[in-house]
Amino acid sequence: MASNSYMKVVLSFFIFSFVISLSFAQSSNFTLPLKSVNLGNWLVTEGWMKPSRFDGIPNKDLLDGTKVQLMSTKLQKYLCAENGGGTIVVANRSSASAWETFRLWRINETFFNFRVNNKQFFGRFSQGQGNRIVAASTTAGYAQTFEIVRNSDDPNRVRLKASNGLFIQAVSDTSLTADYGGSSWDDSDPSVFKLQIVGTLQGEYQITNGYGPDKAPQIMRDHWNSYITDDDFKFLSSNGVNAVRVPVGWWIAKDPSPPKPFVGGSSQALDNAFIWAQKYGMKVIIDLHAAQGSQNGNDHSGARDGFQEWGDSYIPDTVSVIDYLAARYAKSSSLVAIALLNEPLAPGVTLDSLKNYYQQGYSAVRKYTQNAYVIFSNRLGPADSKELLSFASSLSRTVIDVHYYNLFSDSFKNLNVQQNIDYINNQRASALSAVATSNGPLSYVGEWTCEWNVNGASKEDYQRFGKAQLDVYGRATFGWGYWAYKCAQNHWSLKWMIENGYITLV
Ligand SMILES: *[C@@H]1O[C@H](CO)[C@@H](O)[C@H](O)[C@H]1NC(C)=O
Ligand SMILES: *[C@@H]1O[C@H](CO)[C@@H](O)[C@H](O)[C@H]1NC(C)=O
Ligand SMILES: *[C@@H]1O[C@H](CO)[C@@H](O)[C@H](O)[C@H]1NC(C)=O
After folding, report:
1. Could you tell me if the CB of 25 is within 6 A of ligand 1?
2. Cβ-contact 148, 156 below 8 angstroms
3. How far apart are alpha carbons 455 and 422 in whole angstroms?
4. What's the 479 CA to ligand 1 centre distance in angstroms?
5. How far is the CA of 35 from the CAs of 32, 353, 407, 496, in angstroms?
6. Of the residues 66, 175, 393, 461, which has the fewest C-beta atoms closer than 10 A?
């Protein structure tokens, strides 16, 4: 027995040393630039990448942040929060834009708050006002909560039941009150409204709050455990991909009990990514994709309703998320970089706030590691792509992250195959060389893809487009990252592109 356990100790010592030397061999073997892929829609939900994940949500078209417009069928006029909010709500507009658009906050599958353009909520104002509807409260409570009652034949015919049990009615075009007891669905009924959905969000907030506290935890954990597995790292490493960029949300730092509706357990999933990366000799870039307050208003920033509110007041909390991630993963030889904030959007995120945050986030990483690179994402929107260069040059082991899509702008709308490829070889090549200075930070094309606005392109067209991008983005000194690994839309999926011979890296 004794000698047997002695042997076990000796044996485990040898296995241990072997593992250690292997991990040193791997880390010393590691060279830039990286060929990476984004594990998008894994730990930060993006509904468009796999819409079926939302299928089990009741009233799944009425999620947080859904933008709705309401037209009185009797008056044929839209509801409007006068001045965008802060005063009365009327029903006198013949067309609808920002003041006539309300963002839903979902309480449960049938109860909602309505947030107006200036961020107030509309609700009943009863003091001497006869339950008049006003958009004056900056918080949502009992008086701001309404049940959306949908017509069973036409779900876009609705009546809004207030917390006094009565319905909102458009008595006249300037008088909207919550005092109607009728129940007809006639056009002439003053409580019937046509609901038009003009915008949707499908991010982490929407899926977790949509399923609700009873169902969301199991659904999210099943997703984390099945969407990305050991096999995926095996597939990637054997196909020439040597790193993964893993988008995470701020709530991971509150694991295992993040504030509702977010669900605990995502840090366990990220731990697994490190285990698999280690096993297959790959590197991990942790990417804070969703900051509290939302740095860009997109669903992939974890936003509840699409308002972009990240700024100075959120910096301490955001730095503590970086601190959590750096503390937890700094010792892993697979950690190659931490990206402090994905796609901050100008002008809502100012350059001053961003540099202030980047400086503090950088220091948080350096508390735990001198080796990991710190990645600074350039701002999207109207911003100079070189605005971070001198700042980043003053710090060691930093990287500027740029995202290149021939999409999301009218200028790409009518480009044909060759024009798209020329754009890569000319404009993208020079944009990239502008951020690749000799003594400054490294450069990373952290997101790109082979999707474009060309209709009916052939496989060969896609292959040429992919090859052009690999050639040009291959000049980025830190590397590139395909968006994404898995996606319901094939050309956005590096897995599909490799399996079908559209992209070859080895
Ligand atoms: C080091 O890199 C070489 C060439 O890319 C590769 O063949 C080898 O397997 C790598 N070794 C380790 C330990 O990863
Ligand atoms: C709608 O009603 C409000 C309140 O009476 C008024 O100030 C506004 O001018 C009206 N707008 C239109 C387009 O009639
Ligand atoms: C939904 O929320 C409302 C308002 O808080 C509550 O009265 C109602 O019971 C809830 N319904 C369900 C099904 O939880």
Report:
1. yes
2. no
3. 17
4. 18
5. 9, 31, 22, 17
6. 393
